Amino acid sequence: EVSTDDPETAFCTLANREELNPEEGSVHHCLYQFTRNETLTETNKLLCDVCTQRHCGPKNNTKSEKKCVYTNAKKQMLISLAPPVLTLHLKRFQHAGFNLRKVNRHIKFPEVIDLAPFCTAKCKNVAEGNTKVLYSLYGVVEHSGTMRSGHYTAYVKMRAMNNHLSDLVLRGQSQALETEPVKGQWFHISDTHVQPVSVSKVLSSQAYLLFYERLL
């Protein structure tokens, strides 16, 4: 999608991301790195139609005469529409020569996460003046084992139905009302075995998939 936003605000976020100072090895650090501002130069220059027309005039009729102009540019991936349910998929493999290796490093993740530092200043479904976009953790998928074999288990929070979230999903209506995580009991599910666990047990797991619901 081509955007014609004011260059002065094109790279602005709902909350100041420079004040984050995220801890390395955390979900916050992953999001910070994924949404960082990049400069495209040399072989990564951007093909610019405006620059091409300015330097070469109107588009030529024959492809052989067409000359494309590339220019330096800035690039940043930001969230333009805050989802009702946020799913974070952690890459737990890396190439080691010709082999794939599983990454067993623990990645810290919070019970409540604020997406505002990673959202555009004009995020479509955030009320004007809001500087927080909060999400509460309700599910975690964990993988144990290696790349060749292993076992998936899940942590799920049993909680009351969130009517405000349902309104957002079904009708697109949103109104910020809560700032605390949804209360409930966590359970660990492994095949047919289900047992209650503490939130500290959940937060210490080796997450592969994280599921958050928007606090509304």
UniProtKB/TrEMBL annotation:
GO cellular component terms, semicolon-separated: cytosol; nucleus
* Domain USP residues, every copy: 1-215
Q: Which Pfam families match?
A: UCH (PF00443)
- Which GO BP terms sit in this record? protein deubiquitination
GO molecular function of the protein, one example?
cysteine-type deubiquitinase activity
Q: What keyword terms does UniProt attach to this protein? A: Hydrolase
Question: Superkingdom of this entry's organism?
Answer: Eukaryota
Question: Does the record carry Hydrolase as a key word?
Answer: yes
Q: Which InterPro entries match?
A: Papain-like_cys_pep_sf, Peptidase_C19, Peptidase_C19_UCH, USP, USP_CS
Q: Which PANTHER family match?
A: UBIQUITIN CARBOXYL-TERMINAL HYDROLASE (PTHR24006)
Protein name, UniProt field? UBP16 hydrolase
Q: What species is given as this protein's source? A: Struthidea cinerea
Q: What is the lineage of its organism?
A: Eukaryota, Metazoa, Chordata, Craniata, Vertebrata
